[in-house]
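Q: My labmate handed me this sequence with no annotations at all. I'd like to see what the chain might look like in three dimensions before we decide whether it's worth expressing. Could you predict it?
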Amino acid sequence: MIFSGTTFIFYFLPLLLILYYILPEKFQNTILIIFSLFFYIYGDVKFLPLLLITGIVNYFLSRKIRNKSVLIVGIILNILPLLYFKYTNFIIDIINSITSFNIDLFDLILPLGISFTTFRMISFLIDAYNNKIKDITFKKVILYTFLFTYQIEGPIVRYADIEDELDKRIITSSDKEIGTKRFIIGLSKKVILADTLALFITSVSGYNTVVSLWMVALLNILRLYLDFSAYSDMSIGLARMLGFHFKENFNYPFINNGMSDFWRKWHISLTSWFKDYIYIPLGGNRCRNLRNIINILIVWLLTGLWHGANYTFIIWGLFFGIILILEKYLFKNFVKKHHILSCIITDILVIIGFVFFYAKDLPSAFLTIKGMLGLNNLLLINSEVIFYIKNYILILIISIAVSLNIFKIFKGKLQNIAFIYYLALLILSTAYIVDSSFNPFLYFRF
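A: Here is what I predict for the chain of 446 residues:
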């Protein structure tokens, strides 16, 4: 079940909100647990026992977490399922490639949201060990484990950030209004913009020209941003309707002052997780330059592997790690003095770097980048690419404007017609949903 699907919008969400708002407050957590269980069962019933065991085991571990050995055991137990389901075949493939072995690959299916769940539960144990959590109860831990709003694609919400709200929530009319508006914004970004860009990508990707390669690379990163930030908008909006206050997960990363700033604004819950639980414990900035460089490379190697078990993700992570190192040690003054130019260069590097993110393998990624740089003797452009650009130019302009927060200049002027504006977005989004085929969120696979 996805947030932009008819089952969720027309059945699951209305029934949940009716029961949640009508029944006494003491039943709220029970309702959320039941609906969250159903949400997970609907998408992946066979892995429900794994999620239940995850919640129960982490609860009991948290009760004995004062001992560091318990923390280490807890981290290992949380990582093991992720290693098995996500990396077993990758490891076998590596062994086969460097030895004479011919080990058969396993027929593995990745449990829904396992990468996000693993990081949530590790943060829970570490924060409990560091006394950042005041109250741990079985029901709160189970709700934290299963809560559907962040189950599939995050954000990676920390127990410590919503500790009090896991126990009791006060929901105001303002919460309901703000949450509903945020959900509608996310829904429209997903079904009107991101999914339409997917059609644009399909249309131009078959033509091997310099312009089409750049266009596909640009469209891929735009679509990923709109799709993933849309899910975060919907998750944050849903949580707000239910009385939770999640931290922001995106902050217009294409408006940046260098690569470091870009990653402070993109998938914030993940980058902050790596900073707090990997980078700082390794020594962070409080060490010699060589050690700091190694720390950055370790973090970005792990960031790449978190996204996928493929050499393309490893190179993707190291690509950005190296750029961050160069920016920090060689171009720090340049970034400080040349804000606009730094932003443009950063966005171009992001477009190029994410070619690895989308490539099926490294040879095709390097071939694409080579073509983008005009080194493959390709045509600059052809009539078919021009045709599709003309057809999709409006949706491209709107997508770029949304990504750069250009529409904020109209925010004050929309106050008087806010109801009509959001209603129109909802109706238009619903029309797109009814008329389109199933199109899951891109981070669904992580």
